[in-house]
Each structure stands twice: as structure tokens, then as C-alpha cells.
Amino acid sequence: MADNGSSTQHNSQYIVDSPPLDYTPDERGLGYQCFDCMKKYSDKIAQYLADTDEEETYESLLSRCIRVAMGLKSRGLTKEDVVIIYSTNQKNSCVPFIACLFLGIPVGTLDPMLFPSDTTHLLKEVAPKVLFVVPKSVDFINSCVKEAGINAEIIVFDETEDHESFMELLKPQEGESEFVPETVSSLDETAVISFSNTTTGLPKGIMISHYALLVECNSLADTQNFGSVSLTHATLYWISTVAILSAMVYTGGARVIRSKFDAGLTWSLLEKYQITSMFVPPSQMAELVACGRPENLDTSRLHTCVSSGAATSETLMKEIRDLLPGTFVFQMYGQSEVAGSITMFNTSNVKDVLLLDKNPSSVGKIVPGICCKVVDPDTEELCGPNQSGELRIMSKLSMNGYYGRDSSDSYDADGWLRTGDKVYYDEDMCFYVVDRIKELLKYKSWHVAPAMIEEILITHPAVSQSVVIGIPHETDGDHPLAVIVLNEDYMDIAEDVFIEYVAAKAPDRMKLRGGVRFLKELPVTPSGKFKRKELRDMVLNGEI
């Protein structure tokens, strides 16, 4: 295959290759790389804690990670076990995460914004041996653990009477100065479990290898000139934050830790901490624009502002670029199944810099280590430049599969990973995301399964049938909209009834922000499946 990033023809079919991977990962694993880098950068700042105005060096962070690792090892945990962290962004949230990497124990993080049913399902799915939990969520997690029917030790990030305190693990231990991480037997071993929803709504654990994360963090460090200070408000539940944490440790950079996003405060943080890279979804980017840049604000150190998680409109990109002169502002595209980034502009490359300015709606070029093809999902024929189809990936960065599940249907007959996203690329090899082929919607980076909303709607006595589709929104991604066939006795019912009904039974991201439409009959395929695309087109064209 070609290695120059060009589109080449193989057997009359287009294959898009990335630049060659000029990097040899540490064969000992991601944990060993983190350990060595934290020792190397011991006197540098690892974390700025914006909520408490504290800061912490890598020496201090390393000491705490070692003590927690030793505490976990004393419990007899092995690489066959799983550790889960349930936490907002705070001083200690990354400590057990890194400690697990030191031991080669697969580790995952659940976001406190998850719905109780999702949390319970995932706990049952991966059956963690240990759970690290923020104090305010202990009762919630206790309930989920009981409902899941698992036996997990709960460690609380504070003093506690009913469970072991995280503070106990931070006490000095004999032999900690001689501690060395475990060496992985293969870089293909699972390092991190990331979570995502299926089209049925049931979340799944994506197993990501040491190799994939080592390549991803090197790619971020090598292509983005991150500098020294990074800001993202996403928790370690998101693969982007895992990659950023790994990249900042790798380069000796600092992360600014903030528990929640606030547009006005974010502007001031840029100056206060001289932030050099910022990652924001379109919804937060829109809030920064609406808030407005304060006068006399110094953002001269901000090298990169990256938007990800959902499509960003060209208008919004131009607005944020106007507010951040001298900063490279662009959007990228990625998936947890490929350890993060799939396409991104390389700000260390002059040609890429010119292209990101020329093509504000592009999500960049294929990153090193990934080969892709664009396929017509109906005919399976491969598409050339400016022809849209499903993006499929061939890469060693691809996931090890879904934890405890068969993942074979995620690949096509030739072994290419199906992304479920409709894209195209132009003559410059810049990629553009057009739409989703899979049924999953995205609201502010969160996956929304239409099936889950439909299951709620069908329990209402007025509903005979329903189909939920996504209506594009400039900053939020998709707004769920329900098309409903009513039972005969309820023909006069108002759409607000269903909007309120779903809001009372589902998390915020599933609210019917797109509204409700009524039809006497839903269009179906010969096999009896609802024609979702046809319904969506009808709504967008104002036909219903």
C-alpha cells in the first residue's frame, strides 16, 4: 500500500493509506512508559487544580500512584480482573487509573452523568473487583452494585465509615521506593476499557490495547505541538481524555483539572494557566462564543483548540477562530474502537496548516497507523474522492473487541472495522463527515439509542407505533424527534404529552428536543423494518 497519504487504486478500488508510522512503542507497556516519564519530569507540574487553586508535581502524583498500585497488588488483583473508577474530574481521579496501568490491570471509568440503568448494566457486564467512587455517589453505586448482583470492593475518594477510604491507600508503604511497574507480555493486551452504547441502547465495554494507546499518545504529542498545559472538561470516561492524559505524561505537560464547564471561567483559565491546548465539543465552543472573549485577555500561548465529539458547523468554526487569533482551531474525528483519533490535521506540517484554514468543515487527514476505505453500504463498492460512503478502518489500533461479547459483526467480510459513519474525502485527502449510517444519534457527544426512546414511548397507551430519528442541530449534534402512529382512541392528544412522558423516564440527552410528528402509517421495507432515512427526509423537507 502507498505510504504517502495519497489515494491509490488497488484492484480498481480506492484505498486511503496514512503516512508511515515512524514510532516504536515501549514494549514494556503504557504503564511503564508513564512510570519512566513521571520520574523523568518529577519537578514539573502535572496538574493544576482550578477548583481549589492548587498544583501538583509529577513527583507527588507518581508517589500517590505507586502507593495505590501497591494497595491494589496486595489485594491479589491480576490482569484478568477489572477496576472501575466512578468520578468527576478532581485531584485523585487519575491516580487509580495510572496505578492500574502500572500493574497491567484493565481499567475503565464511568461518567456520573450516566443513567442508573446504564451504570448497573456496565457493572454487570465487566464485574469489577474494585470500584473507586466519589463520596456523593456511594449510595448510588451501592444500589447499582446490588442490582447488578456483583461482589465489588468500594473505595471512597474521602474519609468514610462504611467502606475503605482512598486516604488509607495514600499512606507511606514499605518498599515504595523500589516499586517498578509490571511488564506486559504483549502490547496487544488490554490496557483500558472504554464504554459506548449500541444501537439497542445497551452499553458495551471497548477493550483498547497498550499498543493502540501508546501510538495514539505519541501521535498527539508529535503532531500537535501541545506545549505544556492542556484543558478539557471531559472525564476519563471519554477516550479523548485518556489519550490526552497519556500524551501529557509522555511530554511532561500539565493538565488543568476542572469539575465542570463554565464558559466565562474557561476564558479566564486560558490566561491564568497559559493554556497551550484546549479540547472542546461544539456545544461548549458555542457557549464560549455566546459568552464573548473578555477584553485585554492574553491567549497568546494557546496553540491548538480542537473540537471533537460531534460535527462543528463552518459558521461556528469561523466565529471561534475570530475570537482566538493566532490559534490553530480545527475539528477532528475519532472513535473509541480505534483508541481515539482517526482523522486530524497535523499542525507541525505546513501543508496541513494551509488545508485546515482552507477547509474549516473538514475533520482532517488520516492519522499515522490507520488505513481506510470508503464503501457504498448498499453495493459494497469502494468510493473514490468526493463520493460518500461508510468509513471502514484497517489498523493495529483497532479494539481487542467488546468485553464479554462477540464483536464479529463490527467488521466486514474482509476484516475492516465498520465505523457506521458516512464520510467522503476530497482531492487534498481531507475528510468530511456527512452523516451516520448506524442508528445511534449523538447529543452533545453522548450516544443516544433511538430504540431506548421507542421502548419508552410504546408503553404510553396512546402509542401504536413509533420511530425516533435525529434532527441535525448546529451545536448539539442531533435532537431526537419521534414520529408516532396513534391508537384510535387518542387522536386528539398533543405532542407535549409525549415530550413530557419521555423526559420523566429518560436521561436529559434522550429528551425529544426535536419534537413529535404524527402519521397514520409508518413506511416500512419489504422485510418489515421502518424506513428511518425516509422518515428523516420527510421531516427535514417539511412533509410531516
From TrEMBL:
Subcellular location: Peroxisome
Keyword Ligase (UniProt): yes
Biased composition (Polar residues): 1-15
Residue stretches making up the AMP-dependent synthetase/ligase domain: 38-403
Record has Ligase as a keyword: yes
Chief localisation class: other
Gene Ontology MF: a single term: CoA-ligase activity
SUPFAM superfamilies, per the entry: Acetyl-CoA synthetase-like
Residues covered by the AMP-binding enzyme C-terminal domain: 453-529
Keywords: Ligase, Peroxisome
Gene Ontology CC annotations of this record: peroxisome
Pfam families, sorted: AMP-binding (PF00501), AMP-binding_C (PF13193)
Record region (Disordered): 1-21
Alphabetized PANTHER family for the sequence: AMP-BINDING DOMAIN-CONTAINING PROTEIN-RELATED (PTHR24096:SF149), LONG-CHAIN-FATTY-ACID--COA LIGASE (PTHR24096)
Stated family: Belongs to the ATP-dependent AMP-binding enzyme family.
Listed name of the protein: Luciferin 4-monooxygenase
Organism: Callosobruchus maculatus (Southern cowpea weevil)
Lineage of origin: Eukaryota, Metazoa, Ecdysozoa, Arthropoda, Hexapoda
